[in-house]
Amino acid sequence: HLRYSQWRHRCMSSNSKDAYKDLVRAVDNWHVEIFNYFDKRLTNAYTESINSIIRQVERMGRGYSFDALRAKILFNEKLHKKRKPRFNSSAFNKAMLYDTFNWYEVNDH
């Protein structure tokens, strides 16, 4: 993160370093989290959306105990990511060959 380091150095050595002090401290404190997006294109958007849903459930169920709210979130099927089945190309190729040859045999009758 050379460019950030250069920018930080310019800010902190300028006459207006007091204006940048809070921003630089925040970026330094959250350096890993902020630069993960630029390095790996990772965000916590999914986590934030789940947190938003949890807050909505909590508002709707005024008075839920922590355990009840936790159970409601953990056992809700709609909140779990669904994995798509992996496509098995070798099985597909074998089926295609078998069906192709059977098609000709069936149509010859």
Task: Characterize this entry briefly.
This protein has 109 residues and is mainly α. Helices cover 72% and strands 0% of the residues. It has 6 helices and no strands.
Which SSEs are present, and which pair or pack?
Layout: H1 2-12, H2 17-29, H3 31-40, H4 45-60, H5 66-74, H6 89-108
**Count of individual helical segments:** 6
Give the overall silhouette: elongated
Count of DSSP E strands?
A: 0
Please state roughly what percent of the residues sit in beta strands, choosing from under 5%, 5-15%, 15-25%, 25-35%, 35-45% or over 45%. Answer: under 5%
Mean pLDDT comes to 78
N-to-C SSE string, H for helix and E for strand:
HHHHHH
Radius of gyration: 28 Å
Note the main sheet.
none
Instruction: Find the structural class using helix and strand composition.
Output: mainly alpha
* Distance, first to last CA: 71 Å
Report low-confidence residues grouped into runs of 5 or more. Answer: none
Helix content: over 70%
Number of domains: 1
Protein name: Transposase
Pfam family, one: DDE_Tnp_ISL3
InterPro entries: Transposase_DDE
Descriptive overview:
This is Transposase. This protein has six helices and no strands. The chain is an all-alpha fold. It has one domain. The chain is elongated and about 55 Å long. The mean pLDDT is 78.
